[in-house]
Amino acid sequence: MKPVYLSGLSHVTPRGNSSFFPGLSEKLRLPSVLKSAQINNASAQVSSALPGVRTGVRSSLRSTPALYQPQSLIQRTLSANLGLPKPTPSLSHRLLPFSQVRYASHASQGTANRHSRDPAGKRLGAKRTNGEYVVPGCIIFRQRGSKWFPGDNCAMGRDHTIYATQAGYVRYYLDPARHPDRKFIGIVFEKEGRLPHPRNAPTRRKLNMVSVPRVEPVAFQSDMVASINENGTQVGSVPAADAATGPQLRPGYMYREANWVIGRAAEKAGITAKSYDRGNRWLAWRKRQARIERAAQMKSLKGKKKK
């Protein structure tokens, strides 16, 4: 098979032998390239048969734009294979104008953000139980959102914390008349008080005062008693109460009996104690053994508590 002569090229191997130009056979498989190669082969045969027509055919091939385009493709292919390899820009260089650079100011992986994934607890929940005494400002319930609502004598903070506005006793309750689904926390003034209050019941005054029944004052009684009967007015005397008997007001604002009165209680009850005999060593030995046994017993109990 004869070689094909193309303008600008000295020699091109046949299609079957691609060892001299690696990769050329794969690119020559295009239909347009094959057609141009066939046309060039035919023109070469014609030029060898008719030497005079050779230049005319070449000029006609150069003037045809459809045939010139595959020829330039082969030239670029051969020049790429014969010349030095040109560096092919990678995808990152092609997208360089569209890429963004982020300078990390804080680590974003590993243990750097463990505290944000599993933070410490916020100690939510009930801080005061039902029936516990509170003072104004005491926090009763910490929550996120309104799971519980403030009832009587309570208020809610901006972080949904329920706190007491009056001193009293805590009550957790439901009030269907106020809202069918909400749960309330309130304060009552009496330890036995209940919430909610009956409908149309009088509102309790928030004075932290409890109603106490009035007690009639005891009439003064003197030692002189006058009585009137059918025989006339009679005046008599009664024994006055002994102020020394009974509990007395002592320092510290307490009522108690005097120490000397307490000390004479055994004497009044007729209880006598044996006098101490210094020469009775057997009784002293018994008391000493009892103290030793008691100390050993307490020591053994102390060791069990530690375990």
TrEMBL record:
What is a GO molecular function of this protein?
structural constituent of ribosome
Primary location: mitochondrion
Stretches the record annotates as Disordered? 106-127
Q: Which GO terms describe its cellular component?
A: mitochondrial large ribosomal subunit
What's a GO biological-process term for it?
translation
Q: List the keywords (alphabetical).
A: Mitochondrion, Ribonucleoprotein, Ribosomal protein
Domain of life the protein comes from? Eukaryota
Which Gene3D superfamilies does the entry link to?
Answer: 2.40.50.100
Concerning Pfam families, the annotation shows: Ribosomal_L27
Q: Does the keyword Ribosomal protein apply?
A: yes
Q: Which InterPro entries match?
A: Ribosomal_bL27, Ribosomal_bL27_CS
Instruction: State its location(s).
Output: Mitochondrion
* Similarity annotation: Belongs to the bacterial ribosomal protein bL27 family.
Protein name (record)? Large ribosomal subunit protein bL27m
Q: Which organism is it from?
A: Penicillium chermesinum
